[in-house]
Amino acid sequence: MAGRRVLTALATVAALTLAPVATPPSATAVSALVMGGTDQPDPEKLGDYLPDVHTTFLDPFTACSPTDCDLEGVVYPAEFWPFPQWGGLEGQKYDRSVAEGVVNLEAALRRQYLEDPDEPVVLFGASQSATVVTFVKRKLATHPEGMPAQVQIVLIGNPNRPNGGLLARFAPLTIPVLEFTGSGGTPTDAGMPTTDIAFQYDIAADFPKYPLNLFALLNSIIGIDIHGDYLLNRNGYTEAELQAAMQDPANQQIHGDTTYITIPTKRLPLLAPLRQLGVDRNATAVTEPLAALLEPTLRVLVELGYDRGAGYGRASGFGLLPRVDPVRLTTDLVTAVSTGLRDARAAAVAPSSRQGEPPGEPEPKIQQMSSAADHSDVEPAPVPERDRRRQSEPEVADDADETDDTTDQGTTQDEDDSEDASVDEPDPSDASDAEGASDEPASDAPAEPAAA
């Protein structure tokens, strides 16, 4: 009898020892649905595109951390008929390509919801796919059923940036033969944290408001390569410099649920032909001082083609002529000439460390040239997501607290430099439904494009 009890006790101990131990569920992972730009249909076949997007744009601004993020590429046509480099005559027209991208992205979102309704999802769009994400954001804002509740968005080179995006400038116009529609601005009232990143003078995301300003128009056209260089060469920035520029409160502003980041260009595109001529003719000793002399003044003239004081989140179509404060313009031009003389002397004295590139370029700034009325509803820059994730670490300082009123105009003044902008591509939507070019904030987005 006693022996039986001993055997029973041993069996019980063995069973408890060998039984699987229940572990508490891990924190909900984050999924990122990543799309490419025009001529980048499948992000998973673009080499290091997914990890580069993650490191450069998702980790700093979303919950998609280096150790807890599932990256998934979303495929779509990414074509723009009839341009040879973007699909040619066999490719889809722009609106149809975007419409198919909307269908595919919504399907990926539903799949995520069915797998885990509580899992946070990050959407990433670049150029044409930023337009795709714009349509999906509009849909989620009005019909969230069957979709993830926690959605964060990152856009680069967004053609639908309300003040600057080419498709927002053109709204509600369309080019029928191209099926290229001005589909209006990305909404800012959907309650989805969104980060919209653009390089100054990007032709798709920072197109001039006043295209009759030929300095601004030519500058955008000559600088078309800015639009495709957010990841490869980062438009002359090192990775560390780019991160610092994106986190700089002077380059940020908030409108509704969206944080706008505008990265100053290091060099004015308008002077690129002069600089290249110096490289080709081995005459940089002449062309570099000349370019340094002209750049500050030309930046002042180029920036007259923009209205940065209105805020990047306010819908702003094309205009004819800007309102100019003659006293301020005169002061800015005098300062620019003085700065140009100083920079030209420095470029002439200091030989270039790299052919065609003057050493010691000053830190670029975006100067506010607009004489628009005060827009006090532009909020200060937020605490970066990466800092919020690490705020428990004592060494992390909350630099974002210093951003109080610095982003009221979305820019800071530097008498030695000028402003910025950015640009991108167009998106589909019925012309009658697309957003107008008023100066009121964008809210209701145009009707979703019909699937191709």
UniProtKB/TrEMBL annotation:
Acidic residues bias locations: 395-442
Residues annotated as signal peptide: 1-29
Domain of life of the source: Bacteria
SUPFAM superfamilies, per database record: alpha/beta-Hydrolases (SSF53474)
Coiled coil: none
Region (Disordered): 341-452
UniProt-recorded name of the protein: PE-PPE domain-containing protein
Source species: Mycolicibacterium murale
Lineage start: Bacteria, Bacillati, Actinomycetota, Actinomycetes, Mycobacteriales
